[in-house]
Specification:
This protein is 57% helix and 21% strand. With 299 residues, it is an alpha+beta fold. The strands form 3 sheets. Strands 3-2-5 form a 3-stranded antiparallel sheet. It has a 3-stranded antiparallel sheet with strand order 6-7-8.
Length: 299
């Protein structure tokens, strides 16, 4: 007996009731022996038969279970949850179906993708029985069938997809698998709620090649960005050169600012040739600055 298929058998309420009836039969036998009345023997015999039949006629189905009841081999009812009764020797509980959400693990080992790359894929299916009658009558073992259908569908999805697609669009693969497996299992009264791909394994040699490819692409992108930065810097230098060519005073002030920036640290000593100082013409630059400050409208 397991949690998914179990034959009809006794349950606790039936056992308790059978024990009570058997105890009453024993009391009737004692009265018959003590009084010598044969009627008590008949009563004890009847109570014994009832005690024997009670476990075979009273059943209890848990909240999540459904019992498939056959009468002389023909479906008569689907019972549960709760307490129900069947006719002994005429009715039988063929199977007990669990209607809770259940999971099944599947894997596709060395399945070839569309670009002929062997991959190992592990996935989990979440499913539930929505039609107990069809699940019990349409297929022998729905759990095994779900596993086989899921593996077949998983291999079909892998064979029709590129490896890059499987790795980058996993959610889309989950949805496609759910629709494909659900379409096949709906005929058995089983609904596929979701499918989740847990892992996609590729050969170590291919992992190394993919790593080197990704590294090369990143290095290429870094060099492109560096070239774009150099181009922008050169453009700014060209603009600055044009500005300095139109305004010699700006060039002189920039040169003096560079000297200041390099000498503001303590202990720094810079030797500047006399010809460079004459070319900068600090006096003229200071005069230009003073003249600019004395213009009307200047603070």
């Amino acid at each position: 007996m397991n949690n998914y298929f179990r034959t009809n058998g006794a349950n606790r309420p039936a056992i308790v009731l059978a024990v009570i009836v058997a105890a009453a039969a024993a009391v009737a036998v004692w009265f018959a022996y003590d009084t010598g009345a044969r009627g008590y023997y008949w009563l004890a015999g009847g109570l014994g038969v009832v005690a024997f039949l009670v476990p075979q006629s009273i059943m209890v189905a848990d909240q999540w279970e459904r019992a498939i009841v056959l009468r002389l081999g023909k479906l008569t009812a689907i019972r549960g949850p709760g307490l129900f009764a069947i006719l002994p020797f005429v009715d039988s509980v063929a199977s007990w179906l669990d209607q809770r959400i259940q999971t099944t693990e599947i894997n596709a080992e060395k399945a070839l993708s569309k670009d002929t790359v062997p991959v190992n894929i592990d996935a989990v299916i979440f499913w539930q029985i929505h039609d107990p009658e069809r699940a019990a009558l349409e297929i022998t073992n729905y759990r095994q069938a779900i596993t086989q259908v899921a593996q077949t569908s998983l291999r079909e999805i892998v064979g029709s997809s590129l490896l890059s697609t499987l790795l980058s669009e996993r959610k889309q693969g989950d949805q496609q698998l759910r629709e494909e497996i659900g379409r096949k299992t709906a005929e058995w009264g089983v609904s596929v709620l979701s499918v989740e791909i847990r892992d996609i394994g590729v050969p170590p040699a291919l992992q190394d090649a993919m790593s080197r490819q990704a590294q090369a692409e990143r290095e290429k992108l870094a060099r492109v960005l560096l070239g774009q930065a150099e181009q922008e810097i050169a453009q700014k230098f060209v603009e600055a050169a044009d500005l300095y060519a139109r305004s010699p005073a700006a060039l002189q002030l920039r040169a003096m600012n560079i000297i200041y920036e390099t000498t503001k640290e303590r202990g720094a000593t810079i030797l500047i040739p006399t010809s460079m100082v004459d070319a900068m013409n600090p006096a003229s630059a200071l005069g230009l600055v003073a003249a600019a400050g004395s213009l009307p409208g200047r603070a």
